[in-house]
């Protein structure tokens, strides 16, 4: 509670449920500053998923660092570009294996291919997928028209 300049008390915003963010490394890390700006002190975990050889559809989780109490939280899963949806599916499976309820996962992206939206929503019908744009589709597993390699552009590689 704070006293406003007019002398009246204002009770601030409080989250109804416990939140945490989880970024899919590396591009998802670009969304962390905005999350921290609006949710000060929020816990943020990370998941690194790597393609097996040249097989875009074969992926392994090679690193995860998640809050110990993640099963008791609502999770904002962050990845700015979602192409095939395979990485998203793998990341959601990691969260489910840690005890997170499917309906407690909100997948946040900036751009998604329709194929990814269908893939993720069919696999996890209780999950909420939030994106700012659904592009035309995929070409050689890349979102078109898309923005290219988001992580490389954001991190200036």
Strand content range: 35-45%
Instruction: Report the radius of gyration as a whole number of Å.
Output: 17 Å
What is the N-to-C order of secondary-structure elements (H for helix, E for strand)?
EEEHEEEEHEHEEEH
* CATH domain fold name: Rossmann fold
Would you tell me the structural class of the helices and strands?
Answer: alpha/beta
User: How many beta strands in the DSSP annotation?
Assistant: 11
Tell me the helix content: 10-25%
For the largest beta-sheet, the strand count, sense and barrel status come to: 7 strands, mixed
Q: Are there runs of 5+ residues with pLDDT below 50, and where?
A: none
Tally of helical segments: 4
In total, the number of domains comes to 1
Shape: globular
**Mean of residue pLDDT?**
88
Our measurement of the CA-to-CA distance between the termini, rounded to an integer number of angstroms, reads 45 Å
Please tell me the CATH architecture by its name: 3-Layer(aba) Sandwich
CATH class: Alpha Beta
Pathway: Pyrimidine metabolism; UMP biosynthesis via salvage pathway; UMP from uracil: step 1/1
Protein name: uracil phosphoribosyltransferase
EC number: 2.4.2.9
Domain Phosphoribosyltransferase: 1-155
Describe this entry's structure for a reader.
The chain is of the alpha/beta class. The protein has one domain (17-154): Rossmann fold (3-Layer(aba) Sandwich). It is 22% helix and 38% strand. It contains four helices and eleven strands. Strands 3, 4, 5, 6, 7, 8 and 9 form a seven-stranded mixed sheet that branches. The protein has a two-stranded antiparallel ribbon with strand order 1-2. The chain has a two-stranded antiparallel ribbon with strand order 10-11. Strand 3, helix 1 (32-38) and strand 4 (43-52) form a beta-alpha-beta unit. The longest helix has 12 residues, at 86-97. The mean pLDDT is 88. It comes from Auxenochlorella protothecoides. This is uracil phosphoribosyltransferase. Pathway: Pyrimidine metabolism; UMP biosynthesis via salvage pathway; UMP from uracil: step 1/1.
């Amino acid at each position: 509670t704070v006293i406003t300049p007019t002398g009246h008390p204002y009770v601030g915003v409080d989250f109804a449920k416990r939140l945490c963010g989880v970024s899919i490394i590396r591009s998802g890390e670009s969304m962390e500053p905005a999350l921290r700006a609006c949710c000060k002190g929020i816990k943020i975990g990370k998941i690194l998923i790597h393609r097996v050889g040249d097989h875009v559809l074969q992926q392994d989780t090679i690193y995860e660092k998640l809050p110990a109490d993640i099963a008791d939280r609502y999770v904002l899963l962050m990845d700015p570009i979602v192409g095939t949806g395979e990485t998203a599916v793998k990341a959601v499976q990691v969260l489910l294996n840690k005890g997170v309820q499917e309906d407690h996962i909100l997948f946040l992206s900036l751009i998604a291919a329709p194929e990814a939206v269908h893939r993720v929503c069919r696999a996890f019908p209780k999950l909420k997928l939030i994106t700012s744009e659904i592009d035309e589709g995929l070409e050689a597993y890349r979102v078109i028209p898309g923005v290219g390699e988001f992580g490389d552009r954001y991190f200036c590689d």
